[in-house]
Amino acid sequence: IQEPQLQGQDTGMQCEDDRTGIGVETLKRAFLDNLFYVQGKFPALATKHDYYMALAYTVRDRLLQRWVNTAAIYTQEGSRTVAYLSAEFLMGPHLGNNLINLGIYNQVQQAMTELKLDLKELLAKEEEPGLGNGGLGRLAACYLDSLASLEIPTLGYGIRYEFGIFDQLIRNGWQVEKTDKWLRYGNPWEIARPEWAVSVKFGGRTEAHKNAQGRYRVRWIPHKVVLGIPYDTPILGYKVNTANTLRLWKAEAPESFDFEAFNRGNYYGAVDQKVTSENLTKVLYPNDETYEGKQLRLEQQYFFVSCALQDMLRIMLRQKLPLEQFHEKFAVQLNDTHPAIAVAELMRLLLDEHEMDWEPAWEITQKTFGYTNHTLLPEALEKWSLKLFSSLLPRHLEIIYEINWRFLEQVRHKFGTDEGRIGRLSLIDENDGKFVRMAHLACVGSHKINGVAALHSELLQKTTLLDFYEFFPEKFTNITNGVTPRRWIVLSNPKLTNLITSCIGDNWIKHLEDVQRIETYAEDPGFQQEWQQIKRENKVNVAEILLDRTGVKVDPDSLFDIQVKRIHQYKRQHLNILHAITLYNQIKQNPNLDITPRTLIFAGKAAPGYYIAKLIIKLINSVAEVVNKDRDIGDRLKVVFLPDYNVKNSQPIYPAADLSEQISTAGKEASGTGNMKFAMNGALTIGTLDGANIEIRNAVGAENFFLFGLTTEDVGALRLTGYRPREYYEQNPQLKQAIDQIASGYFSHGDRSLFKPLVDLLLDKDPFMLMADYQPYIDCQQQVSQTYRDRDRWLQMSILNTARMGKFSSDRAIREYCQQIWKVQPVPVQLAAEKTGDG
Ligand code: TH1
C-alpha cells in the first residue's frame, strides 16, 4: 500500500544496514538473522510464533533508530512535552500499525512471500495488549498515533497490567471470562528501564518537622513503599521520524525478600511482600463506566500517577530546568478522573519534597493540568470514602482539604455564602457518608476542562458541572473525539485505501479532510461498482470469520447490520434485539414476505459483575439460536454474536458493515468513536441524536443518516411528566408480542424465569426508554431496508459518508488539543543520515 520512503531503495547491489534498511533483500536477511539470534531457531524448527517474533524484532530495529533520535532531539531542545495520563491504553496489535507508519507494508509482505510465509498469518499471531475497556482506552491509543504523526513531543503514562481485559468465551449463550495472559510469550515491543525506577509510598501518617531554614514542613511516614518500574514502547508517527514513548509502570517490591522473615526461617512469609506489591499492577478493572470503590483501584491510580510525576521531575532535573517551569515543560492531560489524584500529588511533590510555597505550587499545578470528562453517567463519577482515602493517602487528604478550603473561600467571595452552592462545589461530598469527589478535584486543579462531543460538553456545562461552569466558565471547552485513519482505514481496509488513493493520491491519510475529493465520484458508475465490490469482499471476509468462530453461515449479499461495543443498558443492544424479534415475527406471520435480507452482528464484553448486561448477551444468543435454525426464515434473517471483541477482532468488522447501530438513549453516550470508524468505512448510521452522532449527521448530511428517537430534551420531559413504559407495551401489538415471547420462554426452551429480570425492568422502570423509542426505531429500520434495495442510492450515500468524515480524524482532535489546551508545537525529527545527506 505504501511506497518506501525515508531511506533509499534497495537495489540488492549496495549493502544496506541490516538494522535500518528497508529493501526486500535486506528485510529478508534481517528477518532470518533475528530468527536465529533472537529466537534461537532455524526455519526447519521455527513455529509461526517464532516467525512473528523474528518479524517483530526486524520491525523494532527499524523503529529504534527513530526512537533514539527523537529522544536525543527532545533532550537537546528541551522541548515542551505533552504527558497523557490514562489508566487505560487500548493499543491493539503493534506490528501491522508499525508497518503502515514505517511505510514498509508492501516490502515486508513481499519479503515474507519470498520466504514462503504469509504476512497475514504472522500478523494474526500477535497477542494484543488489551490494557483498556473500550472507547476511553482506545481514544488514548488513537491520540498517541496522532500526536506522533503530528510530531508533538509526547509521553503516554499508564499501567502495565499483567492481565488486561479478560478474554470472552461464549458457553451455552453466556459470557465466560478467561484471564488475558498477553505477556505469556514475551512482548517484543517494550523495553524495561529499571534504571528509572521510582518509589511510591502508601498509608502511614504525616508529621511536622523543621527544615534547614527553620521553617515547618510536612513529612509523610508511609506504611509501605512500592517500586515502579517503567516499560517503554515506541509510538511511531505515520511517515515521520518521530517516535514518542508510551511509558507503562509495573509495581515491584523494593526488596524481593524480607530478610528478617527469611532469617527467622519463614521462607514463604518472606515472599509475601513481593506478592502483595506485585498485585498492584496485576489486573485491569474490567468495568467500563462504573466505578467500584475498591482500595486496589485507588492504589493503582495513585501508583501510576506518582510514578509519572516523579518521572517528569527527573526529566526536568536532567535537563537542568528549574521546577518553577514545570508547567512550561509539561502539559499534563487527565484522561477522565482516573488520574485526578495527580493534582494533589504534584502539590505534595512541590511542597514537601521540593519545599516550594503553596501559592507558586498551586499556580504551577493549575497551569499544568487539563481534564477531559468522558461521561455524565452518575455511576461512573468516582468518589472515594474518606476512610479509605485517609488510610491510603493521608498527606493527600490534608492537601485536598487545603485546596478545598481556599477554593470555597473564592466561591464565597464571588457568590456570597450560598451554602447550597458551596455544598455542591465542595471537593468533599457530605451527603451520605463522606467522600472525596475526584471530578471536583480535577476541575479545580486544571486550567481547561473539556467534554468529548458538542452535545456532551453542552450537557456538562448545563448539568453535571453546572456550578463549576458558573464559577469559571473560561475553563470549559469542547473537543470532539476522533479516530486514527491509519489503523481504522489504511490497516483495516486496504482495498478501500487503494481505491481512494488511486483516485486522489495518498495525502488523505495524513489530512483526512482531503478524502472529500472522492465526492466527485459518488455518482460515477465505475467507481460505485468498485466501491460495492470492495464492500462485498470485506463482507465475505467477515462471513468466513463468523463461520469459523460461531459456526453460523451468513449471506454476504444480505444487509450487514452491526452493533459492536461494550454491552451496556444505555447503549441498548436489547433495543436492537427487539428489532430482530420483530423481523422474525413478520416473516413467521407472512412466510412469503419479501423483506431485505439482513445479518445482525453483535459483539462486545459485559463487565463481569454487570448482571443485566450479561443477561442481554444471553438474550442475543438465545434469539440467534431460534432465528438461525428456523427453516421458514432461511437467509432472510441471521443473528450472530461474535465472541471476544477486541481491537484485533474489530478491524475486519468496520469495513464490512452496511449499517452501523448507534442507538444509545439520547444524552447518555458522551461521544462514541465506533460510530466514526463505521462511517469512515462507508457504513450508514442508524442512530439517535446523541454524542458525536449529531456531528456525524451534520457532516455527512441528514439525507445520508437514519435518524430516530427521543432527543435529550424529550427524555428529560418524559421523565418529568411520569414515564410509563408498560403503556407502550400494551398499546403496541408488535412490541407486546416480542416482549411476551421473551417472557414466555419462546427463546429459552420454555424457561420463563430466565429473562424475567430484564422483562420486568423494561416494563416497570425502563431507565433507558426502549419502550418509548421502539416504534420510531422499527419505522426507521423499515426505511433502511427500503433504501438498501435502491443499490445506486445506497452506494452514493455510502461514498458520501466516507467522503465527509474528514473532521473525525484524531489528527483534527489533537490539533485542537494542541492549540486550545496544551499550547505545544511540533518538533520535527531528522535522521542523522538525512542530515548529512548520505542516506
Ligand atoms: C467512553 C464514553 O462512554 C464514550 O462515549 C466515549 O466515546 C469514550 O469514552 C471516549 O471519549 C467512556 N469510557 C469510560 C470508561 C471508564 C469510565 C468512564 C468512561 S466514559 C472506566
UniProtKB/TrEMBL annotation:
One of the record's GO molecular function terms: glycogen phosphorylase activity
EC annotation from Swiss-Prot or TrEMBL: 2.4.1.1
Keywords annotated in UniProt: Carbohydrate metabolism, Glycogen metabolism, Glycosyltransferase, Pyridoxal phosphate, Transferase
Record's keyword annotation contains 4Fe-4S: no
Stored Pfam families: Phosphorylase
Catalytic reaction annotation: [(1->4)-alpha-D-glucosyl](n) + phosphate = [(1->4)-alpha-D-glucosyl](n-1) + alpha-D-glucose 1-phosphate
GO annotations of cellular component type: cytoplasm
Example GO BP: glycogen catabolic process
Sequence positions bearing N6-(pyridoxal phosphate)lysine: K677
Taxonomic superkingdom: Bacteria
Cofactor(s) it depends on: pyridoxal 5'-phosphate
Family: Belongs to the glycogen phosphorylase family.
Function in brief: Phosphorylase is an important allosteric enzyme in carbohydrate metabolism. Enzymes from different sources differ in their regulatory mechanisms and in their natural substrates. However, all known phosphorylases share catalytic and structural properties. Allosteric enzyme that catalyzes the rate-limiting step in glycogen catabolism, the phosphorolytic cleavage of glycogen to produce glucose-1-phosphate, and plays a central role in maintaining cellular and organismal glucose homeostasis.
Protein name: Alpha-1,4 glucan phosphorylase
